[in-house]
Amino acid sequence: QQITIFPNPTDQFVRISYSLDQPSSIQVKIFDGLGRIVKRIPQQQKDKGNHKIIWDCINDNNTNIDPGIYYLELQSFMRWKKPNFGIILRILGSLMNLLRCLNNNKYLRVI
Questions:
Q1: How many CA atoms lie within 13 Å of 101's alpha carbon, on the beta-carbon side?
Q2: Are strands 14-20 and 24-31 parallel, antiparallel or unpaired?
Q3: CA neighbours within 13 Å on the CB side: how many for 71?
Q4: Which residues contact residue 58 at a Cβ distance below 8 angstroms, ignoring those fewer than 6 apart?
Q5: Contact, 85 vs 71, CB < 8 A?
Q6: Per residue in 57-97, pLDDT tens?
């Protein structure tokens, strides 16, 4: 599986593109910086090939997600495979705020 997240950072929606090397049942979860699930995209059966999901940055409670860093997990279930991960950045209003947020994160550093 290969995942592309665009646009990233975003302030409205994100397109999650991925490819499958065989038909699979996939499930997508999006986590906040504390590891809490903010969005579950229901499990779906997909054919081999390229696919995309458009996410409107709305959480499972039907509210906009807060600005910050979010992690995406895409799992395929036809055969065991290590889940793929991606990072989604939600625009904080300015590039300086984004850099400040990244520098304050104990797991990520801007170099």
A1: 17
A2: unpaired
A3: 13
A4: 39, 64, 65
A5: yes
A6: 999 999 999 988 899 988 887 654 555 555 665 544 444 45
